[in-house]
Write a structure and sequence with these properties.
This protein has two domains: 228 residues, no CATH class; 29 residues. Helices cover 33% and strands 27% of the residues. The relative contact order is 0.17.
Length: 286
């Protein structure tokens, strides 16, 4: 009886887990992380996280705060978190993040969370669902055969046709709240597949930066929704839409125009009489 009772639910959980793992592994990406500072004469430690979590938010987005606080408490050694600000209304807006938001992932709402460039979480419950998805799935990153970072220069090798994208993350003060965004993307550069070395000394000016190396294609990435309630919260261009709506004519002036015309018609006889009296006075004066 017990086996009959629990077998369907257990089978469903296994099926869901296998489905998520299949989604993530089909993304065929690789991720490596380097934390600065490191010794100027020794190679920096390079490690491969278990998951890549890309969070899209904005300083003016109120529902974003609890998600950002949750992301700050995640294990930096097992999960690589990249915070993106794709909104032009943010002081920390980054055009590379906007391109990834709109063109590569074709997202609409913030906050949104992209997991391993394959799964998408939106809606009010994405914070709780993120922990569930990460705990119940694994991904086998591969593609970067070798990568080292020494004396400000990155050396890498791959047998894939993909380019290497490098995200530079820094801790940045929130525009309105008295707190910091600890994983904010402040810049990005791409190394061509044929380019096996690059000196980043002049690019990495902050000694506390984190570099996230992502091996992935530049084309549109089809995301699979992993949310139980996949509705969004705030449109990225919400402020711009509100201003446009205020400027658009929506028919609300009709009543005022009709009232003005009625009053004008009522006053018309008085205006005509006044004009006749004015002419009469002018004739008598002559």
């Amino acid at each position: 009886m017990l086996s009959i009772t629990f077998a369907p639910s257990f089978s469903a959980e296994v099926s869901e887990q296998n489905q998520m793992e299949s989604v993530f592994n089909d993304a065929t990406i690789d991720v490596l992380v380097v934390d600065l500072p490191c010794s100027e004469f020794d190679k920096c430690e390079v490690f491969r996280p278990n998951h890549l979590v890309e969070y899209y938010g904005a300083d003016w987005c109120e529902p974003c705060e609890p998600l950002e606080l949750m992301l700050d408490n995640m294990d930096n050694e097992t999960i690589a978190v990249i915070q993106h600000h794709p909104s032009i209304f943010d002081q920390t807006y980054l055009n590379y993040s906007k391109f990834r938001f709109e063109d590569q992932f074709r997202l609409i709402f913030i906050p949104s969370i992209v997991i391993n460039s394959a799964g998408l979480l939106t809606g009010s419950g994405q914070g709780q669902e993120l922990n569930q998805v990460l705990a119940s799935s694994t991904i086998n990153y591969s593609g970067i055969d070798d990568l080292s970072f020494s004396n400000g220069t990155v050396f890498w090798n791959t047998s894939t046709p993909y380019n290497l994208t490098i995200w530079k993350l820094e801790s940045v003060e929130h525009e309105f709240d008295n707190r910091s965004l600890n994983h904010l993307a402040v810049d990005m550069k791409t190394l061509n597949n044929t380019q096996r070395a690059e000196n980043l000394s002049s690019w990495v000016t902050n000694a506390t930066s984190r570099l996230v190396f992502v091996l992935q294609g530049d084309d549109y990435q089809q995301l699979q929704s992993l949310s139980s309630n996949p509705t969004g919260d705030k449109n990225l261009n919400e402020r711009q839409q509100i201003i446009s709506e205020l400027l658009e004519y929506d028919g609300g002036y009709d009543l005022a125009i009709i009232t003005f015309l009625i009053l004008l018609v009522c006053l018309l006889p008085a205006l005509i009489s006044f004009r006749k009296l004015q002419k009469q006075v002018d004739n008598e004066s002559e």
